[in-house]
Every structure is written in C-alpha cells, then in structure tokens.
Design goal:
The chain is of the alpha/beta class. It has eleven helices and 30 strands. The longest helix is centred in the N-terminal third of the chain and has 16 residues.
Amino acid sequence: MDDIGSKSSSSQQSVGLITPVLLSGGAGTRLWPMSRALYPKQLLPLASAESMLVVTARRMGEAERYGPPVVICNDAHRFIVAEQLREAACPPAAIVLEPVGRNTGPAAAIAALIVAAEQPDGLLLLASSDGVVREEAAFNQAVAAGAVAARAGHIVTFGVKPDRPETGYGYIRLGTEELAKTVFRIDRFVEKPDRATAERYLAEGGYVWNSGIFLSRADRLIEELETHAPQILAAARTALARSKRDLDFIRLDPESFAAAPALSIDYAVMEKTRRAAVVPVDIGWNDVGSWAALWDIGAKDTAGNVVIGDAILEDVSGSYIRAEDRLVAAIGIKDMVLVVTDDAVLLVGRDRAGDVGKLVARLKEAGRGETELHSTVYRPWGSYQGIDEGDRFQVKRLIVKPGGRLSSQLHHHRAEHWVVVHGTAKVTRGDEELMIYENESVYIPIGTRHRLENPGKVPLHLIEVQSGSYLGEDDIVRFDDDYGRG
C-alpha cells in the first residue's frame, strides 16, 4: 500500500462544485433488530426501496451543483458501502475508513483537509447518511441559498422548522441579521429541551431544529478548527498524512486518529465560531432515530398502521409492523412496534421505541451475537447465511456474485462440502482445478488449500456443509485475497 499523505488522487473535485461528505459511521442501535453493528441502519432500505446511504448520495447527485461524494465510514462496513454505491452508479471521490469512532468533529476535519488539498476554497456539504429528506427540491434550493453565505466565509447549517414540541432534537435560535437571502446569523444553540421548554420555543417562534447538516468552504472550516479545536485538526492532519491506500479506500492512521478528541462539529466549532449561520428549511427532514420515527414518516392504512411485509392484522391500530421474511399475525394491539427478522423479534410500545438502545446494551452484556450480525453476512465477494447448526456441523447458503472469488485458504479444523444449486463454480482444490455445475458437488478435506470463484454472469448459489471439531469463522488461513484481507 502506498502513502496517501494530505492529498488523494481519488478526491479530484471539479472547480465550483460542492463536495458532499457522507458520514456513515453510526451503529443505529435503536433500530435493532434490523440495524446491527456490522450492518447498521444507513446501509438498510428502511425508509424506501434503497439503503439510506444510497438515497442520501442520490439526493446530492445533481451534476450541475455537486461533485462526487467523500464517504467516511467504519472500516468494517467498507465493502458494503463501496458495493452499494457501485450498484447505484454513485461513484465516490474517496471512501475514508475511520479506525475508531470519534464523532463528527474529526470526520469534518478529515473531509475539509481532503477537499482543501484539491481546492482550498471549495465547498463541502457535511451530512449524515441516515436521515430522510422528503422534499429534495426544497433541500437543493436551501443548499443553493446557503452556498452564497458559505462562499462569503460563513459556516452554514440548516435548521428545520419545527411542527411539534420535540424533545429529542437540539434547537437553534435565529438571529435577526440576514447574511444573505434566507440565511441568518445564529443567535445561539440550545441543548435538547424538556417538554415545557420545547412548547415555549414553538409558541415563541424563531427556533428551528438542528439538522446536523453543514456547508462551508474547506479553508474556512480548517481555520475555525485551528482556532477552536486545534487538537482535532492536528490529529486529523497527522492521520491523513500517515494514511495508506488500500484498494479503493483511504485508511487513516489508527494511532493518530484516536488522539483526536471525540467531539461533534457542533460543539467543536459551531457553538464557538462567530461565523455560524443558518438557513431555515421545510424539507420533510427526519433523523430516523427510532422505530417511532419510521412510523411517523411511513404510509399508513386507515387504522394508522404502517405495515411492511407479510402481515395479517385484526383490531390493530397506530402500530408499526415489519415482517422481513415470514408471516406475522397480530390481534388487539395499539400503538406498538413489532419487527420480526429471521432470528429475532422486537415488540415495544411506540412511545418507548427510543429505549431499544438500552435493550441492545443488555444483549451486548450477555454476549449475544444478534447485536453484531444478521444471519446473512455480507462479504466483498457476496454473502452467506446460516441455515442450520448442531454438534460438529453447520449448514450455510453461499451467494457469490459474478466475477467474485473467495480467498485462497485452508481450514485446520473443518472439512467442507459444496453443492451447487444455481450457476457454475470454479473450484481450486490443492493442485486440481474443477468446474462444478448445478446439482453437482465437491468435497474439501481438512487442511486442503482451496478457492471458490464464480466465473459466470449470474450469481452462484451453493449449499455449504461444514463438519469438524471447530467451525468458527476465525479458522481461516488466507494465502491470497483479492480484497486485501489478512
């Protein structure tokens, strides 16, 4: 891998275009059991047919205004992020891998340095990849208005006009000075209020919700970080200077990045700078922080239910029902959330949906794997799903995408038997090279070096039966891997 330094050839941006910076590092624990540590909410199709990451990338995909995005994500999600953007025809300028989560301040610093290396006064639009914006035209109009103030040297955020006394969001009080058309100086930031305070804000007017979306010139953001959060900027500079190229990814230096204080960009810069500005917007925004939020924005039936999947309901109202892969039947419930996956069921009152994260914390303490992985696990070559397991055996379903191939590997403790269900498999077993067709099988003895690949143009489906004394995923010795895994 080659040193990246402070510039990346993959971050080339066209002069005058805004660089979207998509933050994709969250875990989304309040949306368990759909959202899990290794496949979190931003990578799931929770609010539409496409993942929230892809929807966000498309929203900022107008050729006349935006350049290719910079994506900042968790190292464990890198292949899923890259594949989703590839399939959606949204090629990124760069995918930056955070070795550890440090909140939005360090991520913003990294993004500003990457953009500034190509165009110091270039604009970057910092946004989480897990929010919903239903009025995209209004969003882009607001960005255009904010860009005027941002080019003049202000750091602009977008304040959502409140329609209820929400206690789960931070608020911004508008100043009286209009810096540009529909752009106001920020009077002050306000922490999440209690109910009475939120009701007062709504009655008084002049307050907006803090959306966490920011627009700034790269050089201006760097200057403000230098003034108000120099430790963050210094750590980001070192982490980027010592970063490495790994396939299509930029790996930040772990030790340097970990030295950055874990602060939000709001606290590190926006609450301290004198250049903070806000555009009040009405864009149908929702941060999708819980199942109740998905009920809020979902299409409801005549009884006020949001139903996704195969469900039969009797005397059910005001509820969110999601059935991922099986029939769900419910009778006589009201204002509930019922989510059923192939390995977990969540039932919670809609008014308690924000507490799901506490339940996930208990599951983690108990060592439950359902907090980390779905039964379907995604890999750069495709996916596998656990079907059955018992003493000294387990059965999986493998799907290898066209052109995909697993690493050349061996296992010390298990043998494998592959049955091709659909497609054609190319199998290297020791010194042999075999073509295995539908309804045919191949056996891989313990300790035998082997490789599986899909040479065809359709997905390859196999059933894998493992048998042996130890069946853990860490019983892999890799000799060669197309995806840079050790």
